[in-house]
Design goal:
It contains 14 helices and 7 strands. With 323 residues, the chain is α/β, with parallel strands linked by helices.
């Protein structure tokens, strides 16, 4: 797909709300931890004079397209190929051990969804890939389904897709593999899941939606890196700096809520434990107690935004050093 086609399709989720919540400062240093096509980065660069943004993305296609889009900002924009989980090292490597603000949009990028050959969507037939970083030798979703046991596949689909019929889907996948027809394309998986679960007329959600989500999360280890990212992100914020995080499904949002709760100093230990062992320490304050969600107009213009939730926190001074 061409650069222009992407720009026509892509709509940055909660753009105005995110830039406003970050309280962008003139001359401030910011990190867009999930660059994508650079919508949030552009919003930050436009919000105040002299701002600089380090844009991180593990997808080389995102780096290339965003760099073209943001070339007018010259040295104020610094693209870096990498994973958001390495934010501390990446920011320091660019000369910024501390920053004024960070944004992370944890949803799958339009670049991945709308590039058919990437295999993220069941709306077109393509190799079942799903890698956000298509590095040579890395495992695809097809590889995962071909090498995992039935129990492992069922666990992935249940844990990451919250799919109640995970065992049935896994059994059908393994049976197809044993008959010499391993699942290697998006259409094969979508058709198999639809046959396994059935589909009622008028259903808005395709039966394969949860299974595709689960495989994408597993292939890219999306959930395993969120909590450590949040801790490091908060740690490199300057006092009064802000972190804005957008989630798109309950699994992500649950991790973010739990991490923020702990970072506000609230104990997360089970109630029966006599003494706190979770190490909760107050280093942030919540900017918004309830998540910010897209308005009706944005949801109509961009249906993908419907499940988005924006949570924002602000770094506070180290209270342990207060006289």
């Amino acid at each position: 797909m061409t650069e222009g086609a992407f720009e026509n399709l892509h709509s940055t989720v909660l753009l105005e709300e995110t830039v406003h919540a970050l309280a962008v400062r003139p001359g401030g240093i910011y990190v867009d931890a999930t660059l994508g096509l650079g919508g949030h980065t552009e919003g930050i660069l436009e919000a105040a004079e002299g701002t600089q943004v380090v844009g991180i993305d593990q997808d080389p296609a995102a780096i290339s397209l965003a760099s073209k889009r943001l070339k007018k900002w010259k040295s104020r924009f610094k693209p870096v190929k990498g994973n958001f989980a390495d934010i501390r090292q990446i920011a320091a490597g660019q000369g910024y051990p501390e920053v004024d603000g960070i944004v992370a949009d944890l949803g799958v990028s339009s670049i991945q969804l709308d590039t058919v050959e990437r295999g993220f969507s069941f709306r077109a037939d393509a190799p079942l890939d799903m890698r956000m970083d298509p590095a040579p030798g890395s495992k695809t979703a097809a590889d995962l389904l071909e090498t995992s046991t039935e129990v492992e596949i069922a666990d992935i689909i249940y844990k990451f897709g919250e799919e109640r019929a995970s065992r049935k889907i896994a059994r059908w996948i393994v049976e197809a593999r044993e008959k010499g027809s391993p699942i290697r394309t998006t259409k094969q998986l979508a058709d198999l899941t639809e046959r396994a679960l059935g589909r009622k007329r008028g259903d808005r959600i395709h039966p394969a939606t949860r299974t595709f989500q689960a495989l994408r999360i597993a292939v890219n280890d999306e959930l395993g890196k969120i909590e450590s990212f949040l801790i490091d992100a908060v740690d490199i914020l300057k006092t009064d700096g802000r972190l804005a995080v957008i989630t798109f499904h309950s699994l992500e949002d649950r991790i973010v809520k739990h991490a923020f709760r702990k970072l506000t100093g609230k104990c997360t230990c089970p109630p029966r434990i006599p003494a706190c062992i979770c190490g909760a320490k107050k280093v942030i304050e919540l900017v918004n107690r309830k998540p910010i969600v897209p308005g009706e107009d944005e949801q109509k213009k961009n249906p993908r935004s419907r499940s988005a939730k924006l949570r924002v926190v602000q770094r506070i001074a180290d209270q342990s050093q207060t006289p």
